[in-house]
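Open question from group meeting: does this chain pack into something compact, or does most of it stay loose? Before anyone orders reagents, we agreed to write out a predicted structure and look at it together. Recording both the input and the output here so the notebook holds the full record.
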Amino acid sequence: MSGPECCSNPPTLNPAAGAGHVQKVGGIDTYVTGTADSKLAVLLIADVFGYEAPNLRKLADKVAAAGYYVVVPDFFHGDPFVPEKADRPLSVWIKDHAPEKGIEVAKPVIEALKIEGVSAIGAAGFCWGAKAVVEVARHGLLNVAVLLHPSFVTVEDIKSVEIPITILGAELDKISPPELVKQFEQILSAKPAVPSFVKIFPQVAHGWTVRYNTEDAKAVSAAEEAHQDLLNWFAKHLKYPRSRC
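Structure tokens returned:
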């Protein structure tokens, strides 16, 4: 469930991108943005190109502007996928960075957030990151999830979901084609206790939410629509826990 699309339109990484800054969170280099006083946090998990992608950080800043404390950890420990490295294609790189291992980074980050007083955590994952979000959710560490043009996510993964989840797919995606995304929707529809929202965007391809051309108005519009769906889902479901009398 990965292929050339997974690596198309690679970003030009920029460690200085974004309005936030990089600091250690749970011992992990992490781009942070927004008010640290917020008790609601959002974890963004990058695609294979990692946390220095400018469009990803721009989205992190947008989510932060909605009132969340946003963290974008370096899940690859300074080793994002580099298409130019012919001796290390994705099939080799992925052996060192299986998305199932995402929990190893996410857990200390989430623990650190909770120590600082965060009371609820949502997560959004892009491509590789979508599978990582599913794994983190499986460990009971998240309150809300959003998957955007997921890679590696299976029917069995979706069956395991027990928290509010949105899945945003692409009509022209060959990694998670509409047929698979519709299967995900059917599974979630059979779980009325789990709020869900599934949407397939027309005329866009895998990666459209973070690897779009900023000079292409149509591409920007499609990405921004997905970003708004993400924000709407968090606004609806990422809440402060109800106090018990």
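Observations to bring back to the group:
The chain is about 35% helix and 20% strand.
The mean pLDDT is 94.
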